[in-house]
Specification:
This protein has ten helices and eight strands. The protein is of the alpha/beta class.
Length: 239
């Protein structure tokens, strides 16, 4: 990949800057057992992970266009409750599902469910030292603001653009253009890095940004794509 000179660099959040500490089905099952779920199925965690992915996709974009700001937290919570309900749809649910969901929803807004990418702090600091603006563009919900703070990296960002707060989710160009506007730069003057092919690579590229795929697992190793396997590799691209 050629070296690139830009004014701003945007990062995806989940799966790029930070990651689940375990597969989502394992986390769900761990918490569900605390709320009365008993199971003898040794494969249930894997099944819940697959069910989560189906339920997540079925809900559509995590964005609420034309909704007043004071309604967003309740809409976010309702969206995730549908996902969790769908995840357990084919399987036994915790006995006290309401308390279980409240606990789960709270936990995913804290570092308890996540681990920071090992390169994140160093890379963000190095990009900032090079005089570039830094932002987040995420399809996670507004809990990401507190989560970035708790993970110790919020002060490094000049802006955080959240799908639920702007009313459009990646790969829609609006969220990328809103992020660029927040840093007073043109899309062509910005780069975006994220781990999802459709949302991050294609979405950012079609919105006019320089787009790179974060592919630590090598899923796209056989394709001719602008991708990196470690966040630190981004520093080799940025002038």
């Amino acid at each position: 990949m050629h070296e690139l000179q830009v004014k701003a660099v945007f990062f995806d959040a989940v799966g790029t800057l930070f990651h689940l500490r375990a597969p989502v089905g394992e986390i769900y099952l761990e918490r569900a057992r605390s709320y009365g779920l008993q199971t003898s199925d040794p494969d249930l965690a894997r099944k819940l992970t697959e069910s989560f992915r189906r339920g997540f996709r079925s809900q559509g974009p995590l964005a609420f266009p034309n909704q007043p700001a004071d309604r967003i937290p309740a809409l976010e919570r309702g969206w995730w409750k549908k996902v969790v309900t769908a995840t357990f749809g084919p399987y036994q649910r915790p006995l006290d599902f309401e308390a279980f969901f409240d606990d789960l929803y709270s936990m995913f807004g804290t570092p308890g469910a996540w681990r920071l990418d090992p390169d994140a702090g160093r890379v963000l600091g190095a990009v900032k030292d090079r005089g570039m603006k830094i932002g987040v563009i995420t399809n996670y919900d507004s809990r990401v603001l507190d989560l970035l703070e708790s993970l110790g990296i919020r002060p490094l960002f000049d802006t955080v653009t959240v799908s639920t707060l702007v009313g459009a989710a990646k790969p829609h160009p609006l969220i990328f253009h809103e992020a660029c506007a927040s840093l007073s730069c043109l899309p062509a003057e910005a780069a975006h890095l994220g781990d999802d092919y459709e949302e991050d690579l294609r979405g950012a590229s079609q919105a006019g940004l320089h787009a790179f795929l974060y592919d630590p697992g090598g899923r796209y190793r056989d394709r001719n794509l602008p991708r990196i396997c470690r966040l630190a590799e981004l520093l080799e691209i940025l002038l």
